[in-house]
């Protein structure tokens, strides 16, 4: 197993360098929201759109209930609708509103807030299947969390699932994936970087701690990930936190690993790239699954670097199985 990195050209006025932002792909367009250039200071609340075919940026004219700027926010799409949850505002307040963004009408809507749905949080993770969005963990008002929630986009109802057992520590910056009908939690940060894997089965309503084998990646958090078929791909992430916390840059990884969710085995991929086209070590990126020339890919935008400089480049990782 291997894969190839491709650095994309960027035309037009894009979001610029930032980290702790989110990206979601609908069709051949990638939508970007949130993030910071200066640590802990939200940049803007624009929707930046990148046309993956034309490789051109634009800023949308939007209507409706526009969310305030935030960092540590998540996005996931179902059909032509993008869902945005949580994050942290300019006053470092944790948020818990759920918004939808209609990519056809360019209209924002507030779907839930207050006591309806998950408690306030940032640096959580969110993924979607064909009907539900799933939210796990993050940094809450009273510390790190390990709760799993789903929002049914047809019934417009929140569902809280059973909490995992003691083997699953509360965490920020975890990997989250819906693979083969199960919700997978991969690694994260609990005060130390973690290297455990768990899955939740919505049918049995049970959590399972997964013993993985193979070329296992070292503990990490705030990495990029995507589920393609039965495989969960992870790239980069923070492997050693900064003594300055979120104000500094820790040590970042640059490899790509893949977890086979059936065999529970890890493999480190050979990640070819032309000169200057490898994204290098980074974390706190915006990332999403997408398509390039009909192939499923991992899309990575920006993030933080080992020098604590925010990045603004955009890459595809194309797996070759």
UniProtKB/TrEMBL annotation:
It comes from the Eukaryota. The keyword Repeat applies. GO terms for cellular component: cytosol; nucleus. InterPro entries: Kelch-typ_b-propeller. GO terms for molecular function: enzyme regulator activity. Gene3D superfamilies: Kelch-type beta propeller. One of its GO terms (biological process) is glucosinolate metabolic process. Keywords: Iron, Kelch repeat, Repeat. Its cofactor is Fe(2+). This is Nitrile-specifier protein 5.
């Amino acid at each position: 197993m291997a894969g190839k990195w491709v650095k994309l050209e960027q035309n037009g006025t894009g979001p610029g360098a930032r980290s702790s932002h989110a990206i979601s792909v609908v069709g051949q367009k990638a939508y970007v929201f949130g993030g910071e250039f200066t640590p802990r200071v939200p940049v803007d609340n624009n929707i930046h759109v990148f046309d993956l075919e034309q490789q051109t940026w634009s800023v949308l004219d939007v209507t409706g209930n526009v969310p305030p700027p935030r960092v540590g926010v998540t996005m996931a799409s179902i059909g032509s609708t993008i869902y945005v949850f949580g994050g942290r505002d300019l006053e470092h307040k944790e948020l818990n509103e759920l918004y939808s963004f209609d990519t056809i009408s360019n209209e924002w809507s507030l779907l839930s807030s207050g006591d309806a749905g998950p408690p306030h949080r940032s640096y959580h993770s969110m993924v979607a299947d064909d009907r539900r969005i799933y939210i796990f963990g993050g940094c809450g008002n009273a510390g790190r969390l390990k709760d799993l929630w789903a929002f049914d986009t047809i019934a417009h109802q929140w569902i809280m699932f059973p909490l995992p057992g003691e083997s699953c520590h509360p965490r920020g910056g975890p990997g989250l994936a819906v693979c083969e009908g199960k919700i997978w939690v991969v690694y994260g940060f609990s005060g130390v970087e973690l290297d455990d894997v768990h899955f939740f089965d919505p049918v049995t309503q049970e959590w399972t701690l997964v013993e993985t084998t193979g070329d296992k990646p070292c503990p990490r958090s705030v990495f990029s990930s995507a589920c393609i078929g039965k495989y969960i791909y992870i790239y980069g992430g923070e492997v050693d936190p900064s003594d300055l916390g979120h104000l500094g840059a820790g040590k970042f990884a640059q490899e790509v690993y893949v977890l086979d969710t059936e065999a529970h085995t890890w493999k480190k991929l050979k990640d070819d790239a032309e000169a200057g086209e490898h994204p290098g070590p980074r974390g706190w990126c915006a990332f999403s699954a997408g398509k390039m020339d009909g192939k499923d890919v991992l899309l990575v935008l920006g993030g933080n670097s080992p020098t604590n400089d925010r990045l603004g480049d955009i890459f595809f990782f194309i797996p070759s199985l």
